[in-house]
Amino acid sequence: MFNGLEGGLEEVLRRIMETASLNDLQEVKARYLGKQGLVTSLMKNIKEIPPEKRKEYGREVNELKNSIEEAIDNRKNELEELGRLAREGAERPDFTVPGKRRDIGSYHLITQVMEEVQDIWVSMGFEVTTGPEIETSYYNFEALNTPEWHPARDMHDTFYTCDGQLLRTHTSPVQIRVMESRKPPLAIFSPGTCYRKDTPDTTHLPMFHQFEVLLVDRGTSVSHLKGTLNHFAKRLFGADRRIRLRPSFFPFTEPSFEVDVSCGICGGQGCRSCRGSGWLEILGAGMVHPNVFRNVGYDPEIWSGFALGTGLERIAMLKYDLEDIRDLLRNDRRFLKGYRRAII
Ligand code: PHE
Question: How buried is residue 334: exposed, middle or buried, by Cβ count under 10 Å (0-12/13-18/19+)?
């Protein structure tokens, strides 16, 4: 047995087999085969061996060296192969891992209601038109027969820009813009964002949405308005719902009406939902005021028409029985998910 090789060749081979990395293996290799290593020192020792035994000794040391080299080479290949498999394994997808659920977005409830309402009007032949949210006082008020001193302006307090423009308080200015740019007859549907200086509460927001409908033709009457509204209400709320018109006032329509739809919960009998009346107010409407026609250069002796408008939030609240308009803006995903229609 060589000095320094107490465990024998077997011990050396075991150490080689136990190396866990190429670095480990490099260390072991240095220990046995390096310049300061075991085999080298055994070679140097040959001087101390009696001359007649030197040949035999040299052969044994060489055999030992070859065995160690071979074992190291084999282990090197093994470690390289193991490394390659580990890398491949890391890249290979594991189909048994539970999947990550992808959160799918959806349209906001107001967008959904807007599209639903728009579909109904478009299917009746109304054309979608839009106008600016920053308006002049003329389009928002004066052209709509609402002069500066008019008390109706109190309800439409709004935000003004430094150059004297304002954030529109309703979608009615679009009527004026469209009539100014076209000749009658026409039938338009105009959705959009509106603003008023209102403090938020369960039924008010300073920023909200409206839609406006305007029809101008010869010989239009309240019965056209009522028939059209009846169809709209049934399409939106259900065939069993009825409407009624109550006299009201808007500066830009005459006569003017508040339009109610029969309560869907009690069927018009009166319940808590409709505060006992059996009816729910859905929109404002009326026959276009002759002054409005004059303001856009239409002859009111020839042309007549009806207009109507309302808040989309109000429609959404009635249709989906919401208690607080502010829920629409709270960004509570539990609320929004309840009214989810996935984006197609
Ligand atoms: N613009 C009115 C409002 O905001 C609603 C309306 C539109 C009424 C058209 C009559 C005709 O209150």
Answer: exposed
Dihedrals φ, ψ of 186, to 5°?
A: -155, 155
Nearest Cα residue to atom 9 of ligand 1: 308
Counting from 1 in the atom list of ligand 1, the atom nearest the Cα of 170 is 4
CATH fold for domain 109-337: BirA Bifunctional Protein; domain 2 (3.30.930)
The helix or strand, by DSSP H or E, that contains position 207, with its residue range, turns out to be strand 207-217
Nearest of 256, 239, 238 to residue 247 by alpha carbon: 256
Contacts of 146 (CB under 8 A, 6+ apart): 152, 153, 251, 252
Q: Distance between CA 133 and CA 129 in Å, rounded? A: 13
How far apart, in Å, do the first and last CA atoms of the chain sit? 82
Q: Which amino acid would we find at residue 326?
A: R
Query: Cβ < 6 Å from ligand 1: which residues?
Result: 170, 172, 212, 250, 253, 284-286, 307-309
Domain residue limits, the chain? 8-91, 109-337
Q: Copy the structure tokens of residue 13.
A: 């081979």
Q: Is the peptide bond before 255 cis (omega within 30 degrees of 0)?
A: yes
Could you read off the pLDDT of 186-198 as tens digits, one per residue? 999 999 999 999 9
Is the bond preceding 50 in cis, omega lying within 30 degrees of 0?
no
DSSP assignment letter at 284: E
Distance 258 CA to ligand 1 centre (A): 10
Q: Are 244 and 277 in contact (CB under 8 A)?
A: no
Gap from CA of 284 to ligand 1 centroid (Å): 5
Nearest to 313 by CA among 229, 214, 196, 235: 196
Would you say residue 341 has pLDDT above 80?
Answer: no
At 197-211, the pLDDT tens digits run 999 999 999 999 999
